[in-house]
Write a structure and sequence with these properties.
Largest sheet: 3 strands, antiparallel
Number of helices: 14
Helix content: 40-55%
Number of strands: 7
Strand order of the largest sheet: 1-2-3
Order of helices and strands: HHHEEHHHHEHHHEEHHEEHH
Radius of gyration: 26 Å
Strand content: 5-15%
Mean pLDDT: 89
Distance between the termini: 81 Å
Low-confidence stretches: none
Shape: globular
């Protein structure tokens, strides 16, 4: 009986030591995992991309200041950067993504650096932008890009509207470490931009504009899932469902057939797409109506 009584404290002590050892092991493993996540994500965030500078060609035609202002909207730059910087997304525990104030940062970039940032998604220090749509902007002609750059260089420098900086939080770092974050520099294609916007036919101009503007959110012949729960319909199918006048109304006012609001599309149309000319909208419509939808 006395041996049983004596053995209980010994067994209890061993159980406590085992529990402490397990707790210590789990804690150490957690620190190792957290450290690995931060190391892997920081490596990707600080990774330098060896992308050659490509100058705007000598025959580039620079448009007026008013045209530069219009194109800044039409190509969607204002949608993220706003007038003097803005928050693109702020997701708890994931990230706050801030688009910088272009009226300020444009003066930190040479022309070559600016062109590389837009078309290749590579920032001045050689690291990648996170949400710069360079895959699409690689299609903007030299004329249009030079006109926008000239506009930004000649307007007054404004104070930052959003003083906070981009912040990648833990779950965002987990996504980066897992390879789930599409860095702009990895998505950008080789430089495909034409010197002058192709205008030989409405369909040719429309295809160029669709690649540079509409492809941010849409595929031409398939649904597009942005990975955050938003699914955009095939652009050709949508364009072919709209008579020309209704298509212009959609892009000018955000009102879909039946005078409906269609979420983000309505907002983007009123803020940015409404700055397109009738000729540009008609060209997009002509191109979409020339596309053959795949048979189901």
């Amino acid at each position: 009986m006395s041996l049983q009584i004596l053995s209980r404290p010994i067994i209890g002590l061993r159980a406590q030591k085992l529990a402490l050892w397990i707790t210590g092991g789990v804690t150490a493993l957690m620190f190792i995992i957290i450290g690995a996540v931060y190391a892997a994500s920081e490596y990707e965030l600080q990774r330098r991309y060896d992308v050659n500078f490509v100058s705007l060609r000598p025959a580039t035609v620079i448009g007026s200041m008013s045209e530069g202002h219009r194109l800044i909207h039409a190509f969607g730059c204002n949608g993220c950067h706003r007038v003097s910087g803005g928050t693109v997304a702020d997701i708890p525990n994931v990230a706050r993504i801030v688009a910088p104030n272009l009226t300020r940062v444009v003066h930190d970039y040479s022309d070559k650096e600016f062109v590389r940032a837009v078309r290749a998604g590579v920032k001045r220090d050689g690291t990648s932008a996170l949400v710069m749509p360079s895959r699409e902007y690689a299609n903007i002609s030299d004329d249009d890009l030079a006109t926008m750059l000239n506009y930004l260089r000649h307007i007054p420098t404004l104070p930052d509207h959003q003083p906070a900086a981009t912040e990648i939080r833990f779950m965002g770092r987990v996504a980066i470490a897992a390879g789930k974050v599409p860095f702009s520099a990895k998505l950008a294609p080789p430089n495909l931009a034409p010197l002058h916007r192709p205008t030989a036919t409405p369909e040719a101009e429309g295809e160029n504009l669709v690649k540079a503007i509409c492809s941010h959110c849409h595929e031409v012949t398939a649904e597009h899932n942005d990975g955050w729960g938003t699914i955009a319909p095939p652009l050709a199918l949508m364009g072919q469902a709209y008579p020309p006048a209704d298509f212009r109304k959609l892009l000018r006012t955000g009102k879909a057939l039946g005078n409906r609001e269609v979420g983000l599309m309505s907002e983007v149309a009123r803020d940015d797409l409404s700055h397109m000319t009738d000729g540009e909208i008609n060209a997009i419509h002509a191109y979409l109506n020339s596309v053959d939808m795949p048979e189901e």
